[in-house]
């Protein structure tokens, strides 16, 4: 017995391996593609930030809505195994479609590096994304439930370990996806999964279960309405009004599922906060300094998961249990929510620090102006009605001057005095450029927010007497100013050229600054030494390391909330509705994403830290509601309830046999475990 049990255990580890590796490959592909999706929208399809972010969140939401479809197909028709295979093929076709949509040569007839027919690329990429959402969402609830199906009812400890390992694989896939291309992994997902085919425990679909569930619920509601008069005796549960027509077992199963789904109502709020890691927190990072921006953002969450899941599972949870505390799944989920709320309090505190260092940007009714003087002498600049600035040659005003009106008149103390009227941009920042010929002074629009991704915005004013060529920029005419170019942090070299003459200058950049470089007429004679730098926006000074606590808190919350939720959804579902409940669980994530979308559309509170605190307070309120709901929830053993109902109905011999077999197996396992313990002693 000992030998055969060891063999069985090894076999189980082997096919669980195939399932978790399958999940690893699938998540690797999904996160790999997701990581570059916004960049593809921004720089290939040339969408603006808002559209790119909205379509991105809509795609993520769709990925978490399609599980309903996958669950229906699996539980009612194909079974989990075949559903995973078929939808993986859909997924692979989606990835290939998406990959084809990124080949600009297909429509780039004039070979200028940009596609000629954007509609074709947009249509193809949208088709690809829909197929990927169908694939990834469709197989997701099935893989988790299929993994769970490999365990028997008495193996709850092993089942919990499975879900932890499953989550580790998700995050290992997500982590590695940032390093390797995603396409290859779709094929490997399928191959790995099919390789284990002969070993899995495959439960058969039990007819169109979702349709039966809907009909049964519909009948219960109709029947209840028909018997609304007080002369009819009340029933214990409203679903009992389906007793007249439907099987008691189906009614009992629906009651179990509805009980859990009701409990899920407050859960999307957790995901609303969680999903802002990729939007608001990423934006926050762009206003901070530190040279690990992209690495931090894309890898800190999976790295922490890979560390925290084993610590929680092997150390923290057993320790809590040893202290005699009952840390039930629903309590863990509530604590998880509170951790996420604390993460947002931490984000708010970081934001307050950042705000102290941010420039004072104009409000929507204000305009800001700075003056740059490339004239040969110091100038006295008067801006009507009462602004007086003294600006050295090749210097600038100390900071922006804010106006609550747009029409201004500028006078220079030249001989004769030069006066010119300008109209400023409402809500904008501009620089008044005074060139070597001040009569042609002009306004140039400045950046009015921190440059993206911690980059630096730079531009040049040509004070030289002829056209100049600067590395990577178009040629600049005398007295003209270039548009801003974004440069990364670190040392950058620029070569200035006019005919045979050239000189080189270098600058070291930090994060998120903006500069205007003033090129004097002597630029070639002093080997670029005389180029002066005007700081339009200071570099970021709050270090990104300050974001680590918020990432740590939200990931701790995720381990408590998400891993537990996954296990809970499986353990509380009747056998024929495991995937449906997994889909319900994933839908909470979809709703969370949709809330993020709505919040992004509605706009922000004037102060970002206040928005973070608002979200934290909302989640605390929701977690209180959830803890009250959880207090009234009684954990069930779906198999036990099903057996009881069957017993009440009179068991069929076939089922009885199956159950006896399972009991025998359970006894065998227990005896064996005792045997192993005794041998150890
Ligand atoms: C990468 C995340 N830490 C993660 O584990 N995500 C899970 C849960 C979810 O987002 O639904 C996943 O991708 O399955």
Automatic annotation (TrEMBL):
Query: What GO MF terms are annotated?
Result: symporter activity
Q: Which reaction does it catalyse?
A: glycyl-L-glutamine(out) + H(+)(out) = glycyl-L-glutamine(in) + H(+)(in); glycylglycyl-L-isoleucine(out) + H(+)(out) = glycylglycyl-L-isoleucine(in) + H(+)(in); L-alanyl-L-aspartate(out) + 2 H(+)(out) = L-alanyl-L-aspartate(in) + 2 H(+)(in); L-methionyl-L-phenylalanyl-L-methionine(out) + H(+)(out) = L-methionyl-L-phenylalanyl-L-methionine(in) + H(+)(in)
Protein's UniProt keywords contain Transmembrane helix: yes
What's a single GO CC term here? apical plasma membrane
Biological-process GO terms, alphabetical: oligopeptide transport; protein transport
Q: Which InterPro entries match?
A: MFS_trans_sf (IPR036259), POT_fam (IPR000109), PTR2_symporter_CS (IPR018456)
**Keyword Glycoprotein part of the UniProt annotation:** yes
Query: Short name of one Pfam family for this protein?
Result: PTR2
Q: Where is there biased composition of kind Basic and acidic residues?
A: 658-674
Where is this protein primarily located?
membrane
Extract the ranges annotated as region (Disordered).
647-681
Task: Write the record's keywords in alphabetical order, separated by commas.
Answer: Cell membrane, Glycoprotein, Membrane, Peptide transport, Protein transport, Symport, Transmembrane, Transmembrane helix, Transport
Gene3D superfamilies cross-referenced by the UniProt entry? MFS general substrate transporter like domains
Q: Which residues cross the membrane?
A: 12-31, 51-72, 84-106, 118-139, 159-179, 256-274, 294-312, 333-352, 580-600, 612-636
**Annotated localization:** Apical cell membrane; Cell membrane; Membrane
Topology relative to the membrane: Multi-pass membrane protein
Q: Which family does it belong to?
A: Belongs to the major facilitator superfamily. Proton-dependent oligopeptide transporter (POT/PTR) (TC 2.A.17) family.
PANTHER family in UniProt: OLIGOPEPTIDE TRANSPORTER-RELATED
Please explain the role this protein plays, according to its UniProt record. Electrogenic proton-coupled amino-acid transporter that transports oligopeptides of 2 to 4 amino acids with a preference for dipeptides. Transports neutral and monovalently charged peptides with a proton to peptide stoichiometry of 1:1 or 2:1. Primarily responsible for the absorption of dietary di- and tripeptides from the small intestinal lumen. Mediates transepithelial transport of muramyl and N-formylated bacterial dipeptides contributing to recognition of pathogenic bacteria by the mucosal immune system.
The protein depicted here goes by the name: Solute carrier family 15 member 1
């Amino acid at each position: 017995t000992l030998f055969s049990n060891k063999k069985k255990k090894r076999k189980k580890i082997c096919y669980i391996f195939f399932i978790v590796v399958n999940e690893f490959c699938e998540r690797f592909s999904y996160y790999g593609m997701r990581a570059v999706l916004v960049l593809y929208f921004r720089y290939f399809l040339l969408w603006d930030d808002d559209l790119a972010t909205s379509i991105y969140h809509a795609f993520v939401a769709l990925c978490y809505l399609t599980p309903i479809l996958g669950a229906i197909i699996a539980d009612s028709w194909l079974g989990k195994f075949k559903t995973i295979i078929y939808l993986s093929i859909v997924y692979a076709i989606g990835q290939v479609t998406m990959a084809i949509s990124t080949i600009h040569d297909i429509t780039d007839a004039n070979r200028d590096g940009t596609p000629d027919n954007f509609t074709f690329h947009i249509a193809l990429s949208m088709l690809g994304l829909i197929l990927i959402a169908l694939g990834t969402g469709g197989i997701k609830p099935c893989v988790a439930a299929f993994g769970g199906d490999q365990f028997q009812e008495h193996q709850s400890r092993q089942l919990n370990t499975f879900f932890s390992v499953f989550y580790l694989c998700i995050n290992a896939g997500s982590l590695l996806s940032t390093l390797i291309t995603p396409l290859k992994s779709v094929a490997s997902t399928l191959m790995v999964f099919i390789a284990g085919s002969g070993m899995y425990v495959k439960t058969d679909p039990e007819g169109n279960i979702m349709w039966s569930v809907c009909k049964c619920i519909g009948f219960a509601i109709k029947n209840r309405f028909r018997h609304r008069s007080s002369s009819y005796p009340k029933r214990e549960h409203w679903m009992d009004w389906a007793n007249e027509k439907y099987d008691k077992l189906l009614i009992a199963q629906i009651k179990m599922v509805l009980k859990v789904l009701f409990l899920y109502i407050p859960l999307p709020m957790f995901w609303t906060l969680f999903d802002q890691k990729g939007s608001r927190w990423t934006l926050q990072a762009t206003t901070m300094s530190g040279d690990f921006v992209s690495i931090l953002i894309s890898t800190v969450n999976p790295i922490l998961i890979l560390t925290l899941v084993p610590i929680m599972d092997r150390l923290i949870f057993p320790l809590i249990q040893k202290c005699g505390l009952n840390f039930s799944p629903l309590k863990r989920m509530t604590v998880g929510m509170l951790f996420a709320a604390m993460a947002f309090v931490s984000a708010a505190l970081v934001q307050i620090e950042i705000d102290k260092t941010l420039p004072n940007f104009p409000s929507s009714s204000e305009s800001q102006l700075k003056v740059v003087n490339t004239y040969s002498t110091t100038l006295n600049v008067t801006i009507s009605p009462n602004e007086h600035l003294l600006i050295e040659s090749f210097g600038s005003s100390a900071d922006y001057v804010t106006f609550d009106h747009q029409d201004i008149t500028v006078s220079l103390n030249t001989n004769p005095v030069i006066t010119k009227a300008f109209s400023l941009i409402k809500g904008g920042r501009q620089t008044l450029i005074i060139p070597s010929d001040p009569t042609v002074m002009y306004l140039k629009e400045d950046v009015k927010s921190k440059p993206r991704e911690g980059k630096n915005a730079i531009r040049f004013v040509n004070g030289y007497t002829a056209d100049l060529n600067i590395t990577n920029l178009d040629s600049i005419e005398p007295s003209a100013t270039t548009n801003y170019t974004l440069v990364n942090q670190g040392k950058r070299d620029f070569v200035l050229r006019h005919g045979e003459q050239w000189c080189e200058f270098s600058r070291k950049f930090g994060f998120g600054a903006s500069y205007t470089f003033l090129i004097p007429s002597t630029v070639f004679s002093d080997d670029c030494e005389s180029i002066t730098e005007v700081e339009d926006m200071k570099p970021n000074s709050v270090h990104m390391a300050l974001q680590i606590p918020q990432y740590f808190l939200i990931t701790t919350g995720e381990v408590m909330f998400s891993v537990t939720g996954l296990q809970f959804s499986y353990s509380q579902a009747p056998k024929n509705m495991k995937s449906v409940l997994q889909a319900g669980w994933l839908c909470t994530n979809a709703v969370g994403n949709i809330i993020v979308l709505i919040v992004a559309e509605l706009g922000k509170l004037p102060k970002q830290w206040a928005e973070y605190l608002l979200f934290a307070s909302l989640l605390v309120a929701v977690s209180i509601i959830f803890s009250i709901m959880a207090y009234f929830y009684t954990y069930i053993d779906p198999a036990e309830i099903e057996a009881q109902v069957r017993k009440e109905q009179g068991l069929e011999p076939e089922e009885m046999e199956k159950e006896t077999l399972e009991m025998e197996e359970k006894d065998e396992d227990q005896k064996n475990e005792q045997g192993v313990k005794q041998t150890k002693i």
